[in-house]
Structure formats: C-alpha cells, structure tokens
Write a structure and sequence with these properties.
Length: 337
C-alpha cells in the first residue's frame, strides 16, 4: 500500500502518520520525488486494511500495490534510482560501459584490457576471479589473486571494478576489493547470499537468472533491498529458450518492462546474451535504443586463447570500434571521449 501525501502536507502531519503506522508494526518508506511525496507501507495485509489511513490529515490518496515486490517497485519510489560508484553514476540517463575479460587470467591480460577499456572511453572494468563454470574441469578463476590484479588495474587506470561473488563465505573477501559486487545468473535465487549482500551497503549488480521471470528477478532484488541495501543494479543477460543460434535469448523487452515496473537501473549484457562476438555490437546498440542504463561487454586481448567465453569476447580493437559506433550514434555518456 502507498500513501500519496498532499503537496502542502506539513512535516508534523507526515511525522504523525509515520509514528501512528509504526506503532502498529508497519514499516514506512519515505520517498520524496519532484512532484509527489510518497509513503510506502509494508506490513501484514490484514493490519494495513484495518487502518483508516485515508483519514490522516495530509493524505491525498491511498493506492494498493498489487505487485509482490514493494521496495523495488516504481510506485514505492517514482524517481529512478541512481547508484554512485567512485564518481560514476549509474541510472542518471547517461549510459555507462562496463567491459573487461570474462576471467582475470594474468597480470598482463587484465592490465592490457583495463588500458583498452579506459582508452576507448569505458567507465567500469569487469573481470571474474571466482568463476561459475558449468564443468568442474573448466578454469575456475584465480580467486583472491584475480581480485588483487583487478585492484592493481584500478590503481593504474582509475576505473572502478566489478567482480562476481559466488558464495556467502567469500562475500567479505570480494567486497574488500571490488566497487560493485556481481551476483551471477546461477545465484539469482541464492537467498542466503542475497540477504547477506543486503546487509552490506555495497553496490550490487544482480543478473537475471537463466530461466527467471521478471517478477522472480525483481523479488530477488527485493531480498537485497529489504535488508537495507538500496544500491541494486539489474542486469539482463539473456534467458533460456528453444533457440540455438545464440547461447541465450537476449530479452530486450525486459528493459522497458523494468523501467515501467521499477526504479532500479538496468544494464544489458549482450555477450552472455548472445554468446557470439558477431552479435554483440548490434545488440549493444539495440539495448541502448531500448533505454538501458548501460552495457556489460566481454573483451579479451586474444579471444582465441581465452580461458573462458572466448567465442563471445570482442578483441580490444572490436571494442574500440563499438565505442566509436555508440559515440557516433550520439549516445549520451559515450559521446564526449
Ligand atoms: C559473467 O559475467 O562472466 C557470468 C558468468 O555471467 P552470468 O552469471 O550472466 O552467466
Ligand atoms: Mn563470461
């Protein structure tokens, strides 16, 4: 349930409403927008229905929210959320580019990639240190050594870094190094990990599960938000369908749907979304045209030698070309390099 306050509602009236509701065990989330001030209420449905909220002075109207997600919903928070990471803002209308290799493999590989991201005008460096691989025999990542190398690359280039955290036991370690935690598709419903991340204040990019509906995805975001961490970024990375020409089907309709349902920023990952380097540039352009707040793209100095996801990785030159392309389309954020 949400309360929309009258434009001239006083602080005393607002405080009175909040105190009265909290006394009945209702959680109240205050959100002041440009046009409206809203109180989002979370509590037992029966309790909420029994309180004559409409009768409080200062209340313009009461709206029932039918979606199961509350804190993630746009009705609770009409203004888009902006997430700040070392001076870069995600969700302010100017798309950001996150790029880097699938896995951190060596010092030379990550530093070379980081310099290429910086030079092409990218904003954030990615690199996996703990890798969720389908096969236990595949390269599993360098672990903490990979995080140290990412931190060194940040030191050299000034680019903030993002890397995946795979299990709750490693959260403190990963959070110590990275600027943004990545919660991978396979862990989208790892509720223990979601809650633990929710108890930190670290920005987190929550990837859509392999077969998750948009509602399930937003409910996972709700787990993080409801523990107190407001810094959630969503990432569409393709879903399982019957199509086999691509590794996944990149669901670009998720972008306007998320924009409609939620205030959280959304990034699109056309690399995992297609699995094929040839399709990464067109789907990047399409994602930006659909209104995405940014992209995450895998790149590699030598894709043919990559220890993971070589087929979908752009060369450093391809990446520079993509950035030129986006700049020529006058995409804000990519245009003044
Ligand atoms: C990745 O970003 O390297 C990755 C493993 O992504 P996803 O969780 O989307 O498969
Ligand atoms: Mn990958």
């Amino acid at each position: 349930m949400i309360i929309v306050l009258e434009q001239n509602a006083t602080k005393e009236q607002t405080d009175h409403i909040v105190e009265a509701l909290e006394a009945k065990g209702v959680q109240v989330h205050y959100s002041k927008g440009v046009d409206k001030t809203i109180l989002g209420l979370i509590g037992n449905k029966q309790t909420l229905l029994q309180i004559p909220v409409q009768r409080f002075a200062g209340v313009e109207k009461v709206v029932h929210v039918s979606e199961p997600f509350k804190l993630a919903s746009r009705s609770f928070h009409p203004e888009p959320s902006r997430i700040s990471v070392r001076g870069i803002e995600i969700g302010n209308g100017s798309p950001v580019m996150m790029a880097g290799p699938c896995s951190v493999e060596s010092r030379e590989q990550i530093l070379q990639s980081a310099h290429a991201v910086k030079k092409a005008g990218g904003h954030i460096l990615r690199g996996g240190a703990f890798k969720p691989r389908s096969s236990p025999y595949s390269f599993q990542g360098l672990g903490e050594e990979g995080l140290k190398l990412l931190a060194e690359a940040r030191e050299e280039t000034g680019l903030p870094i993002i890397s995946e955290v795979m299990d709750p036991e490693n959260l403190d370690l990963v959070a110590e190094y990275v600027d943004i935690l990545q919660l991978g598709a396979r862990n989208m419903q790892n509720f223990h990990l979601l809650k633990k991340i929710g108890r930190t204040n670290k920005p987190v990019m929550l990837k859509r599960g392999l077969s998750a509906t948009i509602e399930e995805w937003l409910m996972s975001a709700e787990y993080i938000l409801s523990e107190g961490n407001p810094n959630v970024i969503l990432c569409e990375r393709g879903i399982r369908t019957f199509e086999t020409h691509t590794r996944n089907t990149l669901d670009l309709s998720a972008v306007p749907i998320i924009k409609h349902l939620s205030h959280l920023p959304i990034i699109v990952d056309p690399s995992h979304g297609t699995g094929v380097c040839r399709y990464v540039a067109p789907m990047s352009r399409a994602a930006i045209a659909a209104g995405a707040d940014g992209l995450m793209v895998e790149i590699h100095p030598k894709p043919e030698e990559a220890l993971s996801d070589g087929p979908q990785s752009l060369t450093l030159e391809n990446f520079h070309g993509l950035m030129d392309d986006l700049a020529s389309l006058q995409v804000m954020g990519f245009s003044n390099r």
